[in-house]
């Protein structure tokens, strides 16, 4: 891979938005198709790829578009559901039938508009959709449920739900100018005909990409990457992934509009529980539990312990909590690297895309800490390349940390 030290939008999720299935739903921390294609092209033919942090299944989709096979893991049930739909090989005939169901929904939902339809228990919902738009979107949801049921395992009806997710985000006040989702200045009022037209064009777009056959096969499994388990006894030749970064971003927070509207989340307390399982999770209860967290006896890189010590001594009122956050993040990643070893073919290659971060001006060098963890665990040929600069002012980069497992 070429070394890049400038900011490059072609190496971020922005590059993916117009690339068929890759653009179905937006997740800011998704990585770029271009970067993944470069890495997949290094995988030996007929070998299996593993992505232990699937997210929106970018690795899996790139792999099967290039005729390879892949297994993916995630712990977020919405992303597992979404990823498996994105990776499905659809039949043209069944998609034609789905088109008819979609047209019925589009024409019949306005008759359902009232204030009685179910709306999610999303905090400050009026900040997302105004009092005019919300009942229209809720009526559409209720009509979808009547025609195809709630989101489930049927990939065809899931396509309609994915379009609904796109619609709710495009009609909301969510803004994507930052790494984390934020709010625009105000909410926009949408009329019924505008929602119909928008929903129609989203479906057209999703359908066109769903019609494109995929060459390989990939699935997303619900597996906690801190204790990897094997799937069908497969051993992997190439791990291509982008784990969470130690930057306090919460995937549950980013995904909450989708997760509430699709009923993958119902209460704020569930969000905290889910985020506690996520590496680097930091939402609600996940942060309060950190106060009582302590690592078990494992040899961890000295450079990590030094960074935690410096954060602890920084004098900020939250320094103890942040030091523990960083400690736990790299401890969890260490457990991941350790459990991964059982699933690798001798000679397997690892490529981990990760960013560094700073806490109170103290640098947390993820690349160097990963390198040391890998070394302690017996990986070889460890090296790092800079993929891009993430921020014009601060020294924030994205790295590709690579290694080999020789058994
Ligand atoms: C940076 S995102 C991956 C983005 C992905 N490369 C894409 O293009 O969409 C990291 C993912 O790791 C998942 N994750 C966090 N902790 C995990 C764990 N313990 N086990 C499995 N997946 C986890 C999160 O749910 C999130 O989807």
From TrEMBL:
Native organism taxonomy: Bacteria, Pseudomonadati, Pseudomonadota, Gammaproteobacteria, Oceanospirillales
InterPro entries: SAM-dependent_MTases_sf (IPR029063)
Protein name stated in the entry: Uncharacterized protein
UniProt xrefs under Gene3D superfamilies: Vaccinia Virus protein VP39
Highest taxon of the lineage: Bacteria
